[in-house]
Write a structure and sequence with these properties.
By secondary structure, this protein is an alpha/beta fold. The protein has a domain of 196 residues: FAD/NAD(P)-binding domain (3-Layer(bba) Sandwich). The protein is built from 18 helices and 16 strands. A 7-stranded mixed β-sheet has the order 7-6-12-13-14-11-15, sandwiched between helices. Helix 1 runs parallel beside helix 18, helix 5 packs across helix 6 and helix 5 crosses helix 9. The chain starts with a strand and ends in a 6-residue tail after the last helix. The chain binds flavin-adenine dinucleotide.
């Protein structure tokens, strides 16, 4: 590695790839180093169970990809990326009867499904959907300057700072409350915590605008398209290249790290100021996940028709039950009836399984670092809403939080968001600082989900980190 580069990016997750592309697009020479044998980080697809069954190891459903101004700015279709939209974006079944609440692309149709809560749902989401094009860049970015549209942004911020529970008080029906609870639970903090509404507002609004799309061929297709585009611009990728110290790197004017604070400390702690090191040590990681993938003989036999047509199914029954199980996990317990997120990619993308067969993807939240096997609890939850499910299982593969972290060192203790998304760390991740992307070491930047806007496949953290480095080190201004 004796060659000199303008920039070296460490880690080829969505944010590392986004940073590398942003730098390379400006004509710099960029090297992207990835520890593992393939690019993608949280966007990989593998035959985890049986030959011909292609499972998304991590990310599966991509509302944030569709919502990302950065990803939308790239010609990824020319590099093989195609999405399919599920008929129902997300469904939420209940114990009582065969009904389920449904999140649809259409705001009006979704609201209509809530009966007495039609008006309340529209009142909550219609302004967000209307103003989204004006506020998306501010919502999905750092909080460093005055928003471009302060009034529209204040409308979002006022709702986003609330807890999921406070927003749920606007709804009376179990359908609206249940669906809302499942989407709030993506925040991986208690539903009663301030800002737990933020992620759900973004995911639901994004759904009404761009859907909750599924990449044909798996989330690896997003990773591959990003990597092909980067290489088409002249970028260089080296796989199987774990970086344990800045001294491992070839000479470069700037370094961007797609890692979380704990790894940042390990890789370049000596180069950081003692104050910044102290701040990083205080960074909090959140709940972990227990992940399961199934090879299935047939689709999951959900009782509810909406669930049988849904890309995503949230299993947790009522708002109260979801809130209870998430608060148990937050307190370090393993719920008997965990809230379970299920994805059914093969219903919409036949490349995922041999003809007539299917894949199932699911996870539940567990305490950070948990090694408890949650297979039985997850399968019992699926069986509860889809009797006969167990008979469809041909094979399965599981990941506890330790295995998840071994698979991807960014998932500390199984935390898939690169750090807890609470009030302290929603806007100021990893630390309170004018630019969250600049570290205290000159020329070294953090570009992972541990910076705003946080977890998810959107590449916005990578874009903003690269934009900061371009300005600081090369005097180049870029805008989206
Ligand atoms: C089970 C699960 C389900 C998920 N579902 C969704 C979903 O449906 N939709 C969605 O949008 N998001 C989902 N996510 C979250 C999403 O995958 C992450 O938020 C996203 O991948 C974070 O991107 P990143 O680039 O910051 O980090 P990562 O994607 O984690 O990438 C980091 C990369 O850096 C590499 N790396 C780390 N350390 C080093 C080192 N020292 N040297 C070299 N390379 C290194 C890693 O190997 C990895 O490739 C899910 C995650 C998991 C685990």
């Amino acid at each position: 590695m004796s060659k000199r580069y303008d920039a070296v990016v460490v880690g080829a997750g969505p944010n590392g790839l986004a940073a590398a592309i942003t730098l390379q697009r400006e004509g710099l020479s960029v090297l992207l180093l990835e520890a593992k044998a393939t690019v993608g980080g949280g966007m990989r697809t593998q035959e985890l169970t049986l030959p011909g069954f292609r499972h998304d190891v991590c990310s599966a459903i991509h509302p944030m990809g569709a919502a990302s101004p950065f990803l939308r700015s790239l010609p990824l279709e020319q590099h093989g990326l195609k999405y399919v939209q599920p008929t129902v974006l997300a469904a939420h079944p209940f114990d009582s009867g065969d009904d389920a609440a449904a999140l649809l692309r259409s705001l009006d149709e979704t609201a209509k499904g809530f009966g007495a809560d039609e008006g309340a749902y529209k009142k909550l989401f219609a302004p967000l959907v209307r103003h989204w094009p004006q506020i998306e860049r501010d919502v999905l970015g750092p909080l460093v300057s005055l928003p471009r549209h302060p009034f529209a942004m204040a409308g979002f911020g006022w709702k986003a700072l609330q807890s999921g529970k406070q927003i749920a008080a606007r709804f009376k029906t179990k359908e609206a409350r249940g669906l809302w609870a499942g989407i709030v639970a993506h925040s991986m903090i208690p539903l009663s915590a301030q800002t737990s509404a933020a992620i759900a507002l973004v995911l639901s609004t994004a759904g009404h605008i761009g859907g909750w799309p599924i990449p044909i061929g798996g989330s690896q297709s997003i990773a591959n398209a990003l990597a092909f585009y980067f290489e088409s611009l002249g970028g260089e990728i080296q796989l199987n290249s774990p970086v344990s110290s800045l001294s491992d790197l070839p000479d470069a004017r700037t370094v961007l790290l797609d890692v979380t604070p704990r790894q940042l400390l390990a890789i370049c702690g000596d180069e950081l100021s003692s104050f910044y090191r102290w701040q990083l040590k205080d960074y909090k990681y959140g709940m972990g996940v227990f992940k399961i993938d199934w090879a299935l003989d047939s689709p999951i036999p959900f009782r509810s028709e909406a669930c049988r047509k849904a890309g995503t199914v949230h299993l947790g029954n009522t708002f109260e039950e979801v809130a209870h199980s998430e608060s148990q996990v937050w307190k370090g317990q393993h719920p008997d009836k965990p809230f379970v997120l299920v994805a059914q990619q093969s219903l919409f993308d036949e490349s995922r399984a041999p003809a007539g067969k299917h894949t199932g993807w699911a996870y539940c939240h567990v305490p950070n670092g948990s090694t408890r096997d949650m297979t039985e609890a997850i399968e019992a939850q699926v069986e509860r809403f889809a009797p006969g499910f167990r008979d469809t299982i041909l094979a399965k593969h599981t990941f506890n939080t330790e295995e998840m972290q071994h698979y991807n060192p960014n998932y500390i203790g199984g935390d898939i968001n690169g750090g807890v998304v609470n009030l302290a760390q929603l806007f100021n991740r990893p630390v309170l600082r004018f630019s969250p992307y600049r570290t205290s070491a000159k020329g070294v930047y953090l570009c992972s989900a541990s910076t705003p806007p946080g977890g998810g496949v959107h590449g916005m953290s990578g874009f903003y980190a690269a934009r900061t480095a371009l300005k600081d080190v090369f005097g180049i201004e870029v805008h989206l």
